[in-house]
Amino acid sequence: MHLTQMLHSAADTRPNHCATIDGDRRKSWAEVRERVSRLAGALRKLDMKAGDRVAILALNSDRYTEYMFATWWAGGAVVPMNTRWSATENAYSLNDSQAEILLVDSHFAPMIQEIGDEAKTVRTIVHLEENAPEGMLSFEDLIAAHDPCEDAMRSEDDLAGLFYTGGTTGFPKGVMVSQKALWYNNIALGGQANFKSDSIYLHTAPMFHMADLAAGGGAMMAGGTHVYVPSFEPVSTMNAIAENKVTHALLVPTMLGMVLQHPEFDVAKFASVTNYLYGASPMPEGLLRQAMSLLPHVDFSQAYGQTEMAPLVTILDPKDHVLEGPRSKQIKSAGRPAWGCEIKIVDEDGKEVPRGTVGEIAARSPGNMLGYWQQPEQTADTLIDGWVHTGDGAYQDEEGFVYIVDRMKDMIVSGGENVFSAEVESAISTHPDVAGVAVVGIPSEQWGESVHAIVIPKEGSTPDEQSIIAHCKDQIAGYKCPRSIDFRTEPFPLSGAGKVLKRELRAPYWKGQERSVS
């Protein structure tokens, strides 16, 4: 189970088939393999050793795909950096992963100075585009100047990448994902999302995100064509679908809503689409009904998962997207376990509960993470006896469908991005007028959930919402900052162990809702 296997397969069996389309650039599978092997040779010449981490901070592109396969070919592990994070957060991930080589595009090159002041491990920076700035190497020059090297053929439990997520302690943590885990996810999602060799997949979700990695991996396993837009924007996304006759697309619910509600939305532009995959955050039922009504020729699939599972846990198949009749209740579910994945619903002691009883989802598959990078205690809390404890509260019915009803981890899912409350609380707590803070997710029509802070001011202080949000923006990514703030003088409700009872704080905002998360 080595990830370069799928590249070799496509290049051996369909050498002249179009592999990637990025604007005016089109490359065949034979060309992509040649470029990947040369870039791998360049990485080795840059003293990259087996197991070394190679990071990237860039928007979507064909070169992003080449970077990932070249890193694996050379024997390394990828570190895709979050394009929405601040320089401080990305510097943390570079230092934590000990990445010595960083690839960057022109969009993020201006941030490099700020990152470089804090990132102490990076010694080589490669610019992905033409005309590399002073002090950076050129991606294309490296490919042109180096001979191919032998494929390292890393496989099974060899580290494939570190994927950074928010942390429950206020710091990001790197999820260690193996070659086997990604290989398994590519097979499972590729089959269940119906990827074929003539499929054309659009990379519009960010490529650092595990959702796109899984969907793109399914297309790669089938030898399909990859189309890229730098980042999501409704009109450019619709145009890319129409111009390239895209068959498979992944849009998180927020993106889909923006497309369907855009003044330039045109059903005709989606004529080629056969399969639409959604995930990363729950789909509002009203939006799903609208999409299925406007696009009746499209098969809809939902995937639920998390980075710790690389990411697949459950799939709601197209045949289960039923809007009327007795089976219509399944549309509210997250589907059934994906191929090769087992789940169980457990209580606080880890014991399986009866069907229909709410507990925590625990899952295991070949996609299990190896653990959290250099975080043995957090690993032990999450990976127990081979089962990943997801932190999501749910029940499973007699037919195996999983219904998520709550979030046991202190996490908010806003617009498809995970926000750990501890990170936001840590940033707010450094404001000079804040005595106490608790952060929760509250309902949002646009984002599913939005970040909401409840602040206890210091005695004699009167902080305002704007000053606290501005304070946060200097420390954490904009999407993590609170969208709204309430102030209170009474103490927070506490458990017997002295922990803030977040469910009690959230309850008034979710009153009348079927579940306490979106």
Automatic annotation (TrEMBL):
Family membership: Belongs to the ATP-dependent AMP-binding enzyme family.
EC number: 6.2.1.44
Full protein name: 3-methylmercaptopropionyl-CoA ligase
Enzymatic reactions: 3-(methylsulfanyl)propanoate + ATP + CoA = 3-(methylsulfanyl)propanoyl-CoA + AMP + diphosphate
Source taxon at top rank: Bacteria
Source species: Parasphingorhabdus marina DSM 22363
InterPro entries for the chain: AMP-bd_C, AMP-bd_C_sf, AMP-binding_CS, AMP-dep_synth/lig_dom, ANL_N_sf, ATP-dep_AMP-bd_enzyme
Class in the EC hierarchy, top level: ligase
GO function term, MF aspect, one: acid-thiol ligase activity
Coiled coil: none
UniProtKB keywords: Ligase
